[in-house]
Amino acid sequence: MQSSLLIAVVLLSEPSGGQLELLKTFRAEFIQITPGTGVYPVEMTVGRSEGGPTNERPAHRIQLAYAFSIAKYEVPQNLWETVMGSNPSKWKGPRNSCEMFSFDEARQFCDRATTLMRSAKIIDPDQLIRLPTEAEWEYVARAGSNTLYSFGDDPLELDNYGWFNGNAAGNDPPVGAKKPNPWGIYDNHGYLWEWCADVWHDDYEGAPSDGSAWIEGGDSNRRVLRSGSWKDDAEKLTSSNRRAADKTMRDDAVGVRCVLARE
What we know:
Blueprint: H1 2-13, H2 17-28, E1 30-33, E2 43-46, E3 60-63, E4 68-71, H3 77-84, H4 103-119, E5 127-130, H5 134-142, E6 193-200, E7 219-226, E8 242-246, E9 254-255, E10 259-262
Parallel strand pairs: 6-9
Antiparallel strand pairs: 1-4, 2-3, 4-10, 5-10, 6-7, 7-8
Helix pairs in contact: 2-3
């Protein structure tokens, strides 16, 4: 009995040929973010000091004293299926962003991907795949900008960068069909909402200043979503816009983008 269980665990943790190629592609699609060097500032302002909903205030400065990598794309369906064994998405397409999964399932994907990639030596033993913190998400989405969108303030330009209710009939294009932001991140304005690690708080009063996930207090049954989606108006796709979602929710406008970091 113990021998059978051990074999099953090994099979789950050692990727097959097809899995291995997709996981290698996934690893190659991460962009390294190095605050304090090159185009990456150490500090930035999260939220808005005026305008917008109250949950984006008070605007506050964060300082990132660590490097991390973020996926240039939301997790596509072929990758989700090779890691999780099934594809829950409503809008099928191998390179379409995966949707229709809960917050806990998003974390489970990260955990399984970590195990498989460590086993295949695609990542180091002390590296892991995880959800972005809300501060990391906005830092990367802004890409050094202080405008409403990473490309400026004019929503009329949004058609070039994101899928929203002004140009999308559903979640049916492949990832990366629009222009990336200045740091090479695709679909951070629209396409799908993206799960973040943080517990939901109604505003930023008392938020961490170091980029870490805000898991103290708040409503632990709800988590933070970022990005806006193909169902939303342009105003929901700004770099600072945030939304609460029940952690059990599954929706065809909600997906995930992963971070690769050290433990």
